[in-house]
Design a protein that fits this description.
Blueprint (H helix, E strand, L loop, with lengths): L2 H21 L3 H9 L5 H23 L5 H24 L2 H22 L9 H18 L3 H11 L3 H25 L5 H24 L5 H27 L1
Helix pairs in contact: 1-2, 1-3, 1-9, 2-3, 2-10, 3-8, 3-9, 4-6, 4-8, 5-7, 5-10, 6-7, 7-8
């Protein structure tokens, strides 16, 4: 990794951690498309998975009293089936095609995450939760962005935002640990990924602290909207760049 890419990773990690701390999700949605502009997209995916797992530990401890255990367990059960398929996809797919997949995933997920807050129509239940977990597992293993399906399911079925935040964090942690183990097994957790993750850890802590401070001072809906708009514009740029490389 070049010095410029490492500097970008540090800044992006801070912003991604801020988003995750403030909203309970969004670390990979911020980190992967932005870091893939400065670094290899597959390395960006794995680094995001490693750092995204680290940040879950303090956040879940803070929100532990609000976790809906049954819902989290159903989501995790589904993800266990999806993660291996996602890791195989990451290992097989061309980098440019993966960049397009990442960009399309972010754009679609951002629009859906914003819209579902206005139209809460998701039906709660074990089968829908397992299905959402399975799709999340596939996306988590291949793009590090496991959040969208599970977030959409919980936003549509859970009215209590503290319960939403605690449950989504309780889902992310075990699924992320399984994903890291799988990525390590296929040789994707490289020394470069480990070094970048360690160097970016202080930035992650800074973003975590700033997000906790802002949580009670900034309207979450406004912050969410600004982040989603920024991600959509960035992801469109990633899609265009990768598409031109494929031509």
């Amino acid at each position: 990794m070049t010095g410029a890419a490492l500097a970008a990773a540090i800044v992006i990690t801070c912003g991604a951690a801020l988003c995750q701390s403030l909203t309970g999700f969004g670390f990979a949605l911020v980190m992967v498309p932005l870091l893939s502009l400065a670094w290899d997209v597959k390395s960006a995916v794995v680094t995001s998975t490693v750092l995204g797992t680290v940040i879950l530990l303090p956040l879940l401890f803070e929100a532990r009293r609000h976790v809906r255990l049954a819902t989290a367990a159903a989501l995790v059960a589904g993800s266990l089936a999806g993660v291996p398929a996602g890791i195989l996809l990451l290992d097989w797919i061309d980098p440019e095609a993966l960049e397009i997949l990442v960009g399309v995933t972010v754009v679609v997920a951002s629009v859906l995450v914003y819209r579902v807050r206005e139209v809460s129509t998701t039906r709660a239940g074990v089968i829908p939760a397992v299905a959402a977990g399975a799709v999340s597992g596939i996306l988590g293993g291949s793009t590090s962005m496991s959040g969208p399906p599970a977030v959409l399911y919980l936003l549509g079925s859970e009215k209590d935002m503290e319960a939403f935040r605690g449950t989504i964090l309780a889902f992310f942690l075990p699924m992320s640990l399984v994903t890291i183990a799988g990525l390590a097994a296929v040789g994707r957790v490289t020394p470069d990924v480990v070094r970048t993750s360690v160097i970016a850890l202080p930035a992650l802590v800074v973003g975590l602290v700033i997000g906790a401070w802002l949580r009670y001072r900034v309207r979450e809906e406004l912050f969410r909207l600004l982040v989603l708009v920024f991600l959509i514009l960035t992801s469109i740029g990633v899609i265009v760049s990768a598409s031109l490389a494929l031509v």
